[in-house]
Structures are given as C-alpha cells and as structure tokens.
Amino acid sequence: MDYKKLANLLFPDLKYNVEDIEKRYPARTLTKEQVVSRFAPSPTGYMHIGNFFQMFISYNLTRVTDGIFFLRIEDTDSKREKKDAVKVVYEVLSKFGIKPDEYQSLNGEDVGGYGPYVQSQRTDIYKAYAKKLVEEGRAFPCFCKKTEGKEDVLKLREQKFAYDDEKEYDPCRNLSLEDIEEKLKNGEKFAIRLKTKNDGSQRVKFYDLIKGEIEAKANSKDFILLKNDGVPPYAFAHAIDDTLMGTTIVVRGEEYIGSTPAHIELFEALGFTPVTYCHNPLICKIGDNGNRRKISKRFDPEADMRFYFEKGYPTDSVLEYLLNIINSGFEIWRSNNPDKNWKEFKFGVKDITAVSPIFDIIKLNDISKNLIARMSAEEVYSNVLAWAEEFDKEFAKYLKENKEYSTKVFNIGREGAKPRKDIYSWSMVKEQFSYMFKTPNFEELDQEDEDSFNEFIFEYLKEFSFSSSKEEWFNKVKEVASRLGYATDNKLYKANPQDYKGNTAKACQFIRIALTGKKDSPDLYELMQILGEEETIKRLNAKKTL
Ligand code: GLU
After folding, report:
1. Predicted pLDDT at 546
2. Ligand 1 atom nearest residue 41's Cα
3. Which of 165, 247, 260, 428 has the smallest CB count inside 10 Å?
C-alpha cells in the first residue's frame, strides 16, 4: 500500500506538518529535578474532589521543585461539555489560591509558550500526527458507522477473522487503497485507528511513581485516534499534548492504569519517549454495605468542591486535609510546626499514599478547627464576611454595619495560650454566636429549673453592677448564690447535695442561660463586656417574665 498517497487522500489540506509543529514546541530548559506537571480537567460543570486531589498532587510536585504547573482544558468530548464549565474550573482554582504557571485565560489568551492550552483549539496538531502515523503505516481510516461498525466487528469476531481472545483488530485495517478511494469519493466519513503491532502475546512494563513497576498485557487493539469529526479521544490527545508541552510527570487517577499499555504503544508509535506516570489512589468512602467505594457526587455532597464553599470551610483547611491524606508525614510536620504555612511542607513523591484514603469529615473539621483557632479575630471577621456576601446576604449586611462589635465577638476565647476550637466552617459562625447577634430565647433552660432560675436572676439583678472587675463580679455571684441557698464550696455540695439548691456552677449556668440561652458558652464576664451594660441588663431583665 502506498501509505503516503493514502495519507494525502485522507488529509489533503492540513495547515501544518509535524516538523512545523515540533519547532513551535522546543524542549523546556529546566533542570532534571524541576517537575513539569499539569491539571487536565474535562469541563463537566463541577469539580469532583478526586480531580481536585489529583490536581493538588501535581501542583505540589511542581511547587517543591520550582517547576511548571500548567492547566490544560480537555474539552474534546462535546457531549459532556456544559456551558460555563470552564469557568467553574478557574473559579475553584482561584478560590483555593492555586495559580497555574501556564494556562489560557477566560478571554482566550494563552499565558505560556506551549499553548493553546485548550484541546479543542489543537485539532490541527492532532490531525498532523494522525497523518504522520498513516504515512508510516501505523494508522488507518475506519469507515464503520457507529452501529454498523459494531455489527461488522462483531460479525467478524464471530468468524474469528479479525478477533480472537487476544487481539482486537478492526476490519477496516484490511481495506485496499481502491476501497478507501471509493469510500472517500462517496463522501463517507472516517475515523483514524491505530494499527497495533501486537497480537496479544506481548507484555509491557512501566514504572509508576506511586505503585512502582507494573507489568501488564500490551495493547493489541486498533483503538481510535481521531473520531470521524476529526477530534481525538483522550489517549491520542494525551500522548501528543503531554509530549509537546514538556510534561515530565502525569498525575492522574488510578482508573487510567488499565489503559496505560495502550498509551505506551501510542507514545512509541509517535516516536515519543513515554511520560512518567503517577497514578493516584482514589478517595473512597465506606458504603452502606461496609465496603469501600469511590466517593461519588451522586451519594456524597462532599464529592463536589462547591460543598466546601457553601459550608464555608477555609480553603486552607481543605488543602491541609488533602495533604494529610496524600501524605501521612504532613500530620507530624503540622504538629511540630503549628504556625507555619502548609506551603513550607516539603512534599515528596515518595511519600504519596498508595492506598485509597477514606474520606473523613471529622478529621477535616478537626484540622479546620485548629486552623481557625490560629487566626486573629480580624481574619475571622473578613473570612466570615466574604463567605456571607456569597451565601447569606443578610448576615453580611449585619457584619458590615457592626464590624467592631462582630470582631469583638469573634475574639471571644481567641486570645491566650489555649484558644477555643469550636468553629470549623464560616457557615456555623452565626449559629455558634447566635446569642451575640440576636436576643436569645433561654433555649436550654430545663423546665424544672424555671422557678429557681427566676428567683436567682431576680435577686442577682438587684446586686448587679456592670462596672465591677471580674473578681468582684464573681464574688457577687457567689454572695447572691450563697444567700439563696446554693453551695459555694463544691466539696460541701458534693457531700450533701440535698442541703442545697445547687452550687456556684448552677448559679453561673442561670446567668449564662439568661445572657446566651445556652448552658455552654465562652467566659461570661468577657461576654458581658462585649454585649455592653445596656444589653446585659436588658437580657437579665427579660428573664423575670418567663
Ligand atoms: N481529562 C482527563 C480527566 O479529566 C484527564 C486525565 C489526565 O489527567 O490525564 O480524567
């Protein structure tokens, strides 16, 4: 067969050939240590935590080696693509403060010398390589229509002509040049398939940075390189783009391990050196039946990155949680370096987990509580405000109008060696400090305590003086409590509880309920100072009329 002639028949008018293209993509001038890696999402309208996880591994590999992290939009599957989906990718990355070194901006401008960074703008490149493979006899046109083709293939498989248990050769690989010319004359559309060199008896070895050496059956399938609309499925675009763009490590989910032998045959057919792979484990959950399953958007709200924005998790909490599950060394590092930014953590490829991590929201909350506890009240204020501006406009308005007061509220229990650790997300702040933003309703007062509560608060109010020091204030509480029959000595109380109405703690609990509606709150004296005299007295008074 005259392959050159065939290639010209199939691709008569390409803008460039492979030589022209390769001149446009010179090798990167970096050291061996510097990693070039990328995030290559298919825009689907949301971002799955698994994709984000993979992105974050790539990002860290480049960050610690001062390499290049680029973003490539893989939008060749127009059926899957949704409006504004690309915007979602940019939004998520930018909210997390992840800025690729190279990307295409939303207005279509390429930043970086290895663009276009959007696959749908690279079809001329893919065609040029397809043409080259046809010229070299490594690819052929396939005219099967989707269903027809399938039937053809199935029939041929039955006849054991093109297929046996080992190989999956496509019937069109045997078309003559005359057949092809005829079909082209009739305007038939064609896809391009790889003509595999293997027959199912070969094996292939490849090295994976996480899993080590993997041996598998080599590809023996004539798989599609270009669909009949000229657009490549994943494999072909991956081999070409990651080579031209100088990727040194491809981080992708371990679901791609199975197709890696096909990718390796493709790299070789194209004359490229196969890229180094790092197949990351998938984040899992324990399903109802007790088995591990992949975290999925259908069942798990936390699979969609929007969840973290809506709940108002600080983005660093999510990143630190992911670092924690990627790399167990992070937890020790964090406890030894409580005040450092996670970016100072030396992330190494050797330390990436090989086991599928189980998503654990309690752990995330814990990390987040610690992180928020280290923030200043001003930082908390600005974070809560930014969250509220997007998700709770009314609260945002309140915060803006009461900045000083709100900052004081967020400062409660924050100063000192052991700051309170009760907030893990911005959406819980309003509820957590609800009593500071609206008059409470004595929510947690037990019914059987109502009379004692009324009595104590009534008497206490008579003696109350806002200007007293903390010590004077507490002495006054004890004095009123003692007068009304509460034990101020806890040992005595414990020995003979029946002799008392309660102890000082009970008396304080009444004041706490009067001021906050809750049995548990931060330091009462501090709360009163923030509420101010007028509001404190108003709240103590309100209780009388229970
Ligand atoms: N577009 C592919 C995906 O979203 C990328 C896989 C890869 O990173 O190579 O699964």
Report:
1. 47
2. 4
3. 165
